Amino acid sequence: MRLRPAIPTLALALATGAAHADEGMWMPSQLPQLTKELKAAGFKGNPADLADLTRHPMSAVVSLGGCTASFVSPQGLVVTNHHCALGAIQLNSTAERNLIDDGFIAARMADEPSAGPAARVWVTVGFDDVTARILADAKGKTGRAYYDAVESAQKAAVAACEQDAGHRCSVASMYYGRAYYLIKQLELKDIRLVYAPPRAIGNYGDEIDNFMWPRHTGDFTFYRAYVGKDGKPAAYSPDNVPYAPPAHLTVSTAPVKAGDFAMVAGYPGVTFRHRTASEFANQIEWLLPTRVEVVDGLIRTIEAATAGDKAKEVLYASTVAGQKNTLKRAQGELDGLRRSDAVRVRAADEAAMLAWLAKQPGAAAVQADIRAMQVQLDAGEATRQRDFLLPFLRSGLLGSAITLQRLALERGKPDAERESGYQQRDMALIEGGLKQLQRRYHPDVEKAVLGDVLQRYFALPAAQRVAEIDAVFGSDAAQAKARLDSLYAGTRLGNEAERLAAMKADAAALAASDDTLLKAAATLQPALLRLEEESKQRSGELMRLRPAYMQALIGYRESQGKAVYPDANSTLRVSYGKVSPLSPRDGVDYRPVTTVAGIVEKNTGVEPFDAPKPLLDAIAKGDFGSTADPTLKTQTVDFMTNLDTTGGNSGSPVLDAEGKLIGLNFDSNWEAVSASWMFDPRYKRAIHVDMRYLRWLLAKVYPAPHLLKEMGLPAE
């Protein structure tokens, strides 16, 4: 994108005064520019240290892929949320030995089971600006050519980066294509389950309490990362040894109170605060209502298909939990954005920005790009119903068949020319997913889910129907049911060995296969490739044009004296603020800390408020030892801050002014779910497990004194 001196540059925008201390998902490299603000907020460390990913504390903060975690011992001990580890807990559960309900404690390292072949811990070791390198060949190109030029440059950068064995690299776009960063991560492949509290602690309150305050949930779990004896990343092996991280967090033993400085480091997923007014309108008026309806239907379908069958319920426990979280989040986001009148507010803000832009020298070219961008966004709305539904057809066993057919096609190309996700670097993750499917799949349930999705597909306007999908599944629900029965009766992919064998087959062999799901995937593949081509053409144009919008937005914000941080994109970010109360509406005031008294008050003995007897007995005994709050004279459970977080921050370490671990982020309040699109400091709060509660549980309730000792904590 062309940068015109008449419109303030990115560097100038970042050098201006910070936004609210509680607002902003800052790249670590930006933090030295915020030294004054961090110090004023109460941070006692050197902000320059936070920009160095090889130093404490940032080198201790890791990604799990969708969640965040942190090292808390020199022996690779990792702490994250219970809900982030639920898949691993479920994978190691059976109807007879249900670790979800009963919890799990490995008494020694030899007892720590694998978290699954696809489990990973990614340690970020590099975060470098490669904008000029990525955009060099894209200049002057449009559409698919622009997309291909950027993608080719990204692949080349990643390939060069991954010459350093044991690392996984990626290129992240910041400010929607104005800047690109090369992210280098150490990829730890042998992850094991160490400790998980029972469901009635780790998920106390379940969906009733989800996104609510006050909370009383012990949402934590411990993993351990292992490596080969040579200290390098390796797949699971009994001979592997615990990983020695470059740094680990120290767990604080100090009390936490309102007004204390707090900081969160993690990998927030996606925010959309810099999107256009039309995208805000689409989100609020169509996408969120559609997501609520579809996900609610899928949950009901899965629950009906698993009802009364404990084995099926265990297989789909993690899936249902994830979908319930998606549903509640979508509804909360919709309610919040409507409450904030976000469509009108964003439209007014954009209109003011465009009016400001019109007065700037050299604005004509930027305005032209913004208009062209809007044409592309409008075109995407024409097929939004179809594009929303089709990804639901690519999960489970059918999704595996589609992956296998695409893999066979891509394997016939040079590695650098393969589609991202199907290169040699992706083989271990694909194989892990094919293996892991065995513990998260049942044909009856999958057929029911696909039937629900197809019924919605059949209701699409004729212009959005896809001939190949109709050829495989028919034209109505009755035909779809019969064909699904036939497809799943005639496939051998339900057997793990068959899936792994198909992974190694070439395109000719898979094309000749009589396996019904592989044949269906072969029929679907031309359509999927065609739709992918359309998507890349539009994406290329948006990649080329959207930076003009960001250029105008950054300039406009700078004229208002406001800093601009990038929208979240699963890269390492830092937010800072304070432990904060909340007054969400008239006459309602929430203090920022909860105690075990709330567990007893909520307890009904019936799920999800069925507190375990050992927990209730320990509360009644009142033996809280060194973890008791000195002011409240009892045991704390959770606390609340005004930190800027979103999905992906689950499991993120919450640090005090000295960089010590005081909590684990696990949720946001209901009033702030919409913060992924619109931040409102009056309502935005983040909810965290108090590390004092974790310490007490490990000391007094479900004892693990060996873990406390490993973390350098008193066993009392």
Q: How far apart are the first and last residues' alpha carbons, in Å? A: 59 Å
Please outline the major beta sheet.
Answer: 10 strands, antiparallel
Shape: globular
Strand content: 5-15%
Average pLDDT metric: 94
Whole-number radius of gyration?
25 Å
- Secondary structure category: alpha+beta
Number of strands: 19
- Return residue spans where pLDDT drops below 50 for at least 5 consecutive residues: 1-21
Contiguous helical run count: 27
The helix content is 40-55%
Any overview of this molecule?
By secondary structure, the chain is an alpha+beta fold. The chain has a domain at 277-548. It is 43% helix and 14% strand. The chain has 27 helices and 19 strands. Strands 1, 2, 3, 4, 5, 6, 7, 8, 9 and 10 form a 10-stranded antiparallel beta sheet that branches. Strands 12-11-17-18-19-16-15 form a 7-stranded antiparallel beta sheet. Strands 13-14 form a two-stranded antiparallel sheet. The longest helix is centred in the last third of the chain and has 44 residues, at 516-559. It is globular, with a radius of gyration of 25 Å. The termini are far apart. 47% of the residues are buried.
